[in-house]
Amino acid sequence: MAFVMLAEVLIFVPSIARFRADYLLLRLEKAQIASLALLAADDATVSADLEKELLKNAEVFNVVLRRDDVRQLVLSSTIPQPISETFDLRQAGPWELIKGAMLVLADPQNRVIRVIGNPVQDAGLLIEITMETGPLRHAMVEYGVRILFLSALISAVTAFLLFLAVQRLLVAPIRRVVRHMSAYAEAPEDARRVITPSAGVVELRVAEEALASMQTQLTGALRQKERLAQLGGAVAKISHDLRNILTTAQLFADRLEISADPAVARAAPKLVGSISRAVSLCESTLAFGKAEELPPQLKRLPLRVLADEVLEGEGLAGERQEVGGLVTALVDVPAGLVIRADGEQLYRVLSNLVRNARQAIEATGQAGTIEISGGEDEADWWIKVGDTGPGLPPKAKEHLFSAFQGGARKGGTGLGLAIAAELVRGHGGRLDLARSDAEGSEFVLRLPKRVGNADGDQA
């Protein structure tokens, strides 16, 4: 309605100015007719009553007609007050007409003005009259009221039609979207409640399509979360039973350490260590199933020794060992480098990275190299695990550290890297993919030297 009224104002101002100009031209025309009637009479002398009647009919006080360069006062009467202003309509432009109309409307007093114009039908050079502004203003106000009423009617009709259009084109589709959102919120796992885009307005149609896409993805995610929850419950039960079995095996493995056979005595510590790690893994799995990953127990440990244990556990014992003529393992860690970390958790992280690298190389059927290197700077300890394998596929890079989404090996679950990244974050560090191309892949693990916001000891 505001915009319609603004449009009506832009129409009203020129209209009221044109109405005033037509009103004045009509007075000039009536005055010209009265003066020509008087000049056409045989006797130029007329009675005062006739002259008064002619002036009253023309609604003017005086009429001056110039013909043949002679200015002649044709009709005259007493002017009740001095002339306040003169308006020349012969060369008046739009702005002059608008200004004159606004001055008349703004001045409620009845004043006498002089109006000059061109006679019609070329009946002279000019015609000049004097008249009051009161009747002019009254007529302009009546005309303005009619315009205002018409404008209000047009605004009301336009607003009503706009209301109907908005209700049909915008409000109804928005209400439909809100109903779908409410229904979907009650049962987001029900795919039947996903909205079907049907809006005719382009913007609403795009919004409905975006909402449908989001609902579809959320429904799939909820189903996946439900399956993961069920899987987690099953894994927790299996880990519980497996922990009991491994505990029994650990008791028997402890007896092997006192065996008289030297080979058995040498293998016993490795067997005990492997079983201990398996028990620890089961306990961690149970804690993970409860969303309670145990915080790392930070201790100082030599990184070179840990790297050798990881390679030994993966069948890559020693600084340089070939397996089946395919995989070569290298360790490039300073012998005196000591870091602060949870040994068991860091072993799991490095073991996962080494195992993934070995499997990637073996899958190609060609020889390759795995290298564990380490070092430190002022803020962090860093560990790199690189290989000369085929690199990661693009799909695996998109969700590399997401459970059940970042698996690079066919048949893999993608849990290994997700758990490894979580364990590193528990140390306050981060696990990143430094590179992955046709020449191989390299992961970088960084562990901070400072613990939290406290001033931790520097290694």
TrEMBL record:
InterPro entries given in the database record: HATPase_C_sf (IPR036890), HATPase_dom (IPR003594), His_kinase_dom (IPR005467), HisK_dim/P_dom (IPR003661), HisK_dim/P_sf (IPR036097), Sig_transdc_His_kin-like_C (IPR004358)
Reaction catalysis annotation: ATP + protein L-histidine = ADP + protein N-phospho-L-histidine
Q: Any idea what this protein is called?
A: histidine kinase
Gene Ontology molecular-function annotations: ATP binding; phosphorelay sensor kinase activity
Alphabetically list the UniProt keywords. Answer: ATP-binding, Kinase, Membrane, Nucleotide-binding, Phosphoprotein, Transferase, Transmembrane, Transmembrane helix, Two-component regulatory system
Q: Where is the Histidine kinase domain?
A: 237-451
Could you confirm whether the keyword Repressor appears in this record?
Answer: no
Organism in which the protein naturally occurs: Paragemmobacter aquarius
* UniProt key word Phosphoprotein: yes
* Entry EC no(s): 2.7.13.3
Q: Which Pfam families does this UniProt record tie to the protein?
A: HATPase_c, HisKA
CDD domains given in the database record: HATPase
Q: Where are the transmembrane segments?
A: 147-171
